[in-house]
Write a structure and sequence with these properties.
The structure is a single chain. This protein has 238 residues and is mainly alpha-helical. 71% of the residues lie in helices and 3% in strands. The protein has nine helices and two strands; from the N terminus they run ααααβαααβαα. Strands 1-2 form a two-stranded antiparallel sheet.
Length: 238
C-alpha cells in the first residue's frame, strides 16, 4: 500500500492541472496559477516519497510524465493564450499567421510532451537534466498572473503579446534542447559536494524577498544561465 502513496500524489498533481484548465476556461488565470503551484508541490513530494519509501515503479514513472504534460505543458499553454488575448485583442489576428498566431503558445504543450517522453528513455538524466524541465516552465508561467494581480506595476512587461509568443517559441526549444541543466537532487548534504546548489538556493531566497512574485521569471532565467555556465566550465576543464 505504501508504494501507492507517491502515485496518489502524482494523481493529485494531475487533478490540480485539470482544475487549472477549468479555471482558465472560466477566465480566472489567477486561480489557475494556484493550481500550478499545488501541482509543483505534489510533483516534488511524489519523487521525494518514492525515494524515501523505495517505491520506484515503471507505472509511477509513466504516470508522473502524463500528469506533468497536463500541469506544466497544456495548462501553461492555455494560460499564455489567455494572457495573449488580454494583451492584444484584435491585433492578435493581424499580420503574419493571422488568426493562427496566438496558437503558437501551444508549441509549449507539444514540446513538453516530447520532452517528457524523451526523459523517460534517456539514461543520461539521472543526476542532471538535458533541456529545461517542464516544472520550470510551469513555475514561470504560473508567476505571471500573480505578478499582474499583486504587483500591477509590472503589467506592461507581462501583457506584451509579442513577448509572450517569443517566450513560447524560445522555451519550447529549450525544453527539447541538448543543454545540460543542474538538477536539485542531493546525494549528500555536504557544502563541498553541493556548493553551486546551495549558493543558488540562497540567491533564490534573497531575490524572493526583494522582488516577491516578480522574482520567479528572473529565477528561472538565472537557473538556465547558471546551468549553461557550469556546463561550459566543465567542458573547458575537460
Amino acid at each position: 500500500m505504501k508504494k501507492e502513496i507517491p502515485n496518489l500524489l502524482t494523481l493529485s498533481n494531475l487533478l490540480a492541472g485539470c482544475m487549472g484548465l477549468y479555471f482558465v476556461m472560466q477566465g480566472n488565470v489567477l486561480y489557475a496559477s494556484y493550481c500550478i503551484f499545488i501541482s509543483l508541490v505534489c510533483d516534488f513530494l511524489d519523487g521525494f516519497l518514492a525515494r524515501l519509501l523505495q517505491a520506484y515503479s515503471e507505472l509511477g514513472k509513466e504516470l508522473d510524465s502524463l500528469a506533468d504534460v497536463v500541469s506544466f505543458g497544456i495548462l501553461p499553454s492555455f494560460m499564455l493564450l489567455n494572457l495573449v488575448e488580454q494583451s492584444c485583442g484584435a491585433q492578435c489576428t493581424t499580420g503574419p499567421f493571422g488568426f493562427y498566431k496566438p496558437f503558437l503558445v501551444f508549441s509549449l504543450a507539444l514540446m513538453s510532451a516530447y520532452r517528457l517522453a524523451k526523459f523517460n528513455i534517456d539514461t543520461r538524466q539521472t543526476d542532471s537534466f538535458i533541456g529545461v524541465p517542464t516544472p520550470a516552465n510551469g513555475l514561470l508561467v504560473a508567476s505571471l498572473p500573480l505578478i499582474l494581480h499583486f504587483q500591477p506595476e509590472y503589467t506592461a512587461y507581462i501583457l506584451h503579446y509579442k513577448g509572450l509568443l517569443i517566450y513560447s517559441i524560445l522555451m519550447s526549444y529549450l525544453l527539447v534542447s541538448e543543454l545540460p541543466l543542474m538538477a536539485f537532487k542531493f546525494k549528500t548534504w555536504s557544502w563541498a559536494d553541493n556548493q553551486s546548489k546551495y549558493l543558488f538556493l540562497i540567491y533564490c531566497v534573497a531575490l524572493l524577498v526583494m522582488l516577491k512574485f516578480a522574482a520567479f521569471p528572473v529565477l528561472v532565467i538565472s537557473y538556465i544561465a547558471l546551468s549553461g555556465i557550469l556546463s561550459l566550465n566543465k567542458s573547458i576543464q575537460k
